[in-house]
Write a structure and sequence with these properties.
Shape: flat
Number of helices: 3
CATH topology of the domain at 4-97: Immunoglobulin-like
Largest sheet: 6 strands, mixed
Strand content: 35-45%
Structural class: mainly beta
Length: about 700
């Protein structure tokens, strides 16, 4: 079979500094395998078999690899093969692409006051034709050494007529562009200086800025250096009050701002700025309208009125001030309001101002987030960039009653097999006169299914505990309590609990009447390991109501029972025996070593840890107290675990005013419930935690 060769790729085009791999694929008779030879040539010259040029060109039998391709690598590469009977060859044309060479021989011709023709010779394009030429200039009067683009010439043209500015000493250079990129810039041309002339344009972006009343600061963008057209550039500023003055006030300045004082506050002015140099003035400038310095408004909005939308939202209306009283650019209006008193207790409040901003020229606004059942004062003012104007006369309005907030807590005081006693706190904010409570309950289980919702209305607003009867034994219930006003009922506080099984019993004791002193200790001994409900009531207890209640659990046999149960386990007995044997073995070893002459120093210590004295508890209802300094009951809680923390108890009307901490009604019932942030020595029982233990009253 005849020998055949193919070189791939056939006509590669490679960017300078990139790499190329040529592969020679050969087919020859297998009987001639031992005589088969392969070699490479470039433009007819044989390439050595070993690497050349420091490893940049690598030959490996049928492959030729060139890294960091140079312009000199361009040419025809031939793969040659021979056997004992025949020979064959195949070639590939390598084309190297690069940016153009810089243009050369820049010439100036057709020189005029405002133009010149520039010509040049194009450099080598390196296999990618020039598609654009960029002409740059540099002048040595204003910004020497800084080259700026002046013009672009499409295609491969090598000449351009350039438009020039007066009073500039130019020199030029050219950059050629092809598909690969930009060439290096050419060498600069000879310099060409254009003669001076009057300005061709005036400053732009004319504006008025003022930081003080009765002042006007006029500013503008200065001309660029190449726009000056000649020496001695200045700006002629002209101004007059619009509609009042007929003659222009004029002043020549060299900087790009002018301040004028003793002008009326915020009045319109006509302003012109014209460029002027030693050879003349620029074109007639356009007139710009600007205003002198602002001052704060000197009038307040009138006709302020309030429309009550609901218990927390009102709509405010007002009549805006006239433009001449704004004395500036009107930015908007501010509505200020503050609470003066609560309609619930009539107590006056220290004014705490709030405000909302309404931008633009408008005459109404909505004020949300107000407290229900309260009296407010409200004012409106206008403001501009300078500041706020005077406030309007205060308008008094009242918000109606709203629904109460959620009661502070709902607790289970006592569970029996078919009944439960519940206690709850006052809402944090009543938002009106409380009319009573709505108590709801339903059966729940571990699934999403719930029973029918039953409801009990508690019409007496002073009642804060209730006994529900005719419940099912051993059943889990969820309870809800809502506080209500004439407006409606608020959000419910919840609690869950499990009634006792059939046959379970609970007991309770009522102590003798005690004097209203800060301390009290029951004379009866409490059973260890038992849960108790402590309830403090007036002597004439009515309507299921109590002043204070909490749940405690004494220590004792309940804890001992845990360890007693463990001690009967076989693994526990075995573990104790192993520890005893190990101790005996260690003592024997120590005794033997000591008898052999070992010296040991043994020091026995005994630390006494007497039980801490029970902390005294101060009755926080009949004694003086504050929310941040509450004491636990003394005596009755001596057996409590010191780590057990208390929760807040029932609320107090103190949160809604500055009145007394608590008062009795004519019938002797206590209408102010115990209030505090922490009660030490009691078991926490708030939120929606499940009470799964029997509580006895």
């Amino acid at each position: 079979d005849a020998t055949k060769l193919v070189v791939t790729p056939k006509s590669p085009r490679v960017l300078k500094s990139h790499s190329i791999l040529l592969k020679c694929q050969a087919e020859y008779d297998p009987h001639l395998k031992h005589s088969f030879k392969l070699s490479w040539r470039k433009d007819g010259d044989e390439l050595p078999a070993n690497s050349t040029e420091g490893g940049r060109i690598i030959l490996d039998r049928d492959t030729l690899f060139i890294s960091s391709v140079l312009l000199e690598d361009q040419g025809v590469y031939t793969c040659m093969a021979s056997t004992a009977l025949d020979a064959a060859e195949a070639e590939a044309q390598l084309i190297v692409l690069d940016v153009p060479d810089p243009p050369e021989d820049l010439q100036l011709s057709e020189t005029q006051n405002r133009s010149v023709r520039l010509s040049w010779k194009a450099g080598a394009s390196h296999n990618s034709p020039v598609n654009e030429s960029i002409i740059e200039f540099e002048e040595n009067r204003w910004e020497p050494g800084r080259w700026q683009e002046l013009s672009r010439v499409a295609g491969n043209d090598t000449t351009a007529l350039l438009s020039l500015a007066p009073y500039v000493n130019y020199q030029f250079r050219v950059v050629s562009v092809n598909a690969v990129g930009r060439s290096q810039p050419s060498k600069p041309s000879l310099r060409y200086a254009t003669p001076p002339a009057a300005p061709d344009k005036n400053p732009e972006n004319i504006r008025v800025e003022a930081s003080e009343p009765n002042e006007m600061v006029m500013k503008w963008e200065p001309l660029k250096p190449v726009e000056r057209n000649g020496p001695g550039l200045e700006y002629k500023v002209s101004w007059r009050q619009r509609g009042v003055e007929s003659d222009w006030n004029e002043e020549l300045v060299k900087k790009h701002s002018l301040s004028v004082r003793n002008v009326p506050t915020f009045v319109p002015y006509e302003i012109k700025v014209q460029a002027v140099n030693s050879l003349g003035s620029g074109p007639e400038p356009n007139v710009t309208i600007g205003y002198s310095g602002e001052d704060v408004p000197d009038a307040a909005p009138s006709g302020v009125s309030v429309e009550v939308v609901n218990s927390t939202l009102v709509k405010v209306f007002w009549l805006g001030i006239s433009r001449d009283r704004v004395r500036g650019h009107l930015r908007g209006y501010k509505v200020n309001w503050w609470k003066t008193k609560s309609m619930l207790d009539g107590k006056r409040h220290h004014p705490e101002k709030h405000f909302l901003t309404f931008k633009g020229d408008r005459s109404y606004g909505m004020i949300p987030g107000l407290e229900p059942f309260s009296e407010f004062h409200l004012t409106v003012l206008a403001f501009n960039s300078r500041g706020d104007g005077p406030e309007s006369s205060p308008v008094v309005f009242e918000t109606p009653e709203g629904v109460p907030e959620q009661p502070r807590f709902l607790r289970i005081l006592n569970f029996d097999k078919d009944s439960v006693t519940l206690s709850w706190g006052l809402p944090k904010k009543a938002n009106g006169h409380l009319t009573g409570y709505v108590l709801q309950y339903q059966i729940i289980n571990e699934t999403h299914e719930v029973g029918a919702l039953s409801e009990v209305s508690v019409a007496n607003r002073s009642v804060q505990s209730w006994r529900l009867a005719e419940l099912s034994p051993s059943t889990k219930y969820k309870f809800y309590i809502k506080a209500c006003t004439a407006k409606g009922c608020g959000k419910a506080a919840t609690e869950e609990g499990l009634t006792l099984a059939q046959g379970s019993k609970g007991s309770g004791r009522i102590s003798d009447a005690v004097k209203p002193t800060p301390k009290f200790q029951p004379s009866e001994a409490l059973e260890p390991g038992t849960e108790y409900t402590i309830r403090l009531v007036t002597k004439n207890w009515v309507d299921n109501n109590s002043i204070f209640e909490d749940v405690i659990e004494t220590r004792g046999r309940a804890y001992a029972g845990i360890y007693e149960g463990i001690s009967t386990q076989g693994w526990f007995i075995g573990l104790m025996c192993a520890i005893a044997l190990l101790t005996l073995l260690l003592l024997t070893i120590c005794f033997v070593r000591r008898n052999k002459g070992g010296k040991y120093s043994v020091k026995e210590k005994e630390d006494l840890h007497p039980d801490p004295e029970a902390q005294s508890i101060k009755d926080e209802i009949f004694g003086e107290y504050s929310d941040s300094d509450e004491k636990p009951l003394k005596g009755s809680l001596q057996s409590l675990n010191g780590d057990i923390k208390a929760t807040g108890s029932a609320d107090s009307l103190v949160d809604y005013g500055e009145g007394e901490h608590g008062m009795f009604n004519e019938d002797g019932s206590f209408i102010g419930a115990y209030s505090g942030s922490k009660e030490k020595g009691s078991v926490e029982s708030t939120g929606s935690s499940t009470a799964t233990f029997p509580l006895h009253a």
